């Protein structure tokens, strides 16, 4: 896997080839994720849309260099406004379509509020520290202590214990209870597709409602029945189809409704 050196250290990445004239896809993983944990989804989405795709692991994740500092309630803002812009600039990815999952979706929305993007696909985004989310993180901590989750993460990360400790430690910290990005998103005027499963142990449709209130541009939403926290893995056909439709209509003529619901 190639790496590129940026100011916070080396980042592993891969680029899937596609139409160089179309806005490229940039995939942003979840809090415990990395390149490999996307599985086949990036390749499927790139093939379906015909676009180039950049997939990378954040510092401390996968095979990227270690994160230089402990996580704080400002960490996702720093990823959105410092790390991601530098990485995109170094790799020559301009005005991308950001596809983020969980924390990656939060980073995508924050980035879109301050930087030019073609569109955003937010899979199971977090806009605030919801009690259900914190309960899910606490349950994950128990699963990690009992062994299975720890073994899974060890397969994907160079330093899996630090990945988990920093993720769970931040979300369950007292300082994070007031974390809320709804007020930071008004500058995001590009089209956004919000995707959420109704059986997600880490969040509810309240995050989509908050995003619709906060975002400054057109919003579409896809609600998936019987789907958990990873729509792109649990319902890949529905998600890929929805993204294709969304990107084909993202530049809809003025006068069309700014709020639309997509049904699988």
UniProtKB/TrEMBL annotation:
Transmembrane segments: none
MF term (GO), any: hydrolase activity
Organism: Streptomyces telluris
InterPro entries: AB_hydrolase_1, AB_hydrolase_fold, Carboxylesterase_BioH
Superkingdom field: Bacteria
Domain AB hydrolase-1 intervals: 25-242
Name of the molecule in the record: Alpha/beta hydrolase
Keyword Hydrolase: yes
Signal peptide: none
Sorted UniProt keywords: Hydrolase
Keyword Hydrolase in annotation: yes
One Pfam family here: Abhydrolase_6
């Amino acid at each position: 896997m190639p790496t590129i050196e940026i100011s916070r250290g080396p980042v592993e990445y891969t680029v899937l080839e596609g139409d160089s004239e179309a806005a490229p896809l940039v995939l942003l993983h979840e809090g415990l994720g990395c390149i490999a944990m996307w599985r086949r989804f990036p390749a499927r989405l790139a093939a379906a849309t015909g676009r180039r795709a950049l997939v990378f692991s954040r510092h401390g994740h996968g095979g990227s260099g270690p994160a230089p500092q402990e996580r704080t309630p400002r960490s996702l803002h720093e990823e959105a406004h410092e790390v991601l812009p530098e990485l995109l600039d170094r790799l020559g990815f301009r005005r991308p379509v950001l596809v983020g999952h969980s924390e990656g979706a939060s980073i995508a929305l924050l980035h879109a509020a301050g930087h030019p993007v073609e569109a955003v696909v937010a899979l199971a985004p977090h806009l605030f520290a919801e009690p259900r989310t914190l309960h899910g993180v606490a349950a994950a901590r128990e699963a990690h202590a009992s062994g299975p989750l720890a073994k899974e993460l060890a397969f994907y990360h160079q330093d899996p214990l630090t990945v988990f400790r920093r993720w769970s430690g931040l979300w369950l910290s007292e300082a994070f209870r007031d974390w809320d990005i709804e007020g930071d998103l008004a500058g995001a005027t590009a089209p956004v597709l919000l995707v959420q499963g109704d059986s997600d142990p880490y969040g509810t449709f309240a995050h989509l409602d908050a995003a619709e209130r906060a975002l400054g541009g057109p919003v579409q939403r896809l609600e998936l029945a019987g789907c958990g926290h990873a729509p792109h893995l649990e319902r890949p056909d529905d998600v890929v189809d929805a993204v294709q439709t969304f990107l084909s209509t993202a530049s809809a003529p003025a006068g069309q409704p700014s709020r639309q619901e997509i049904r699988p």
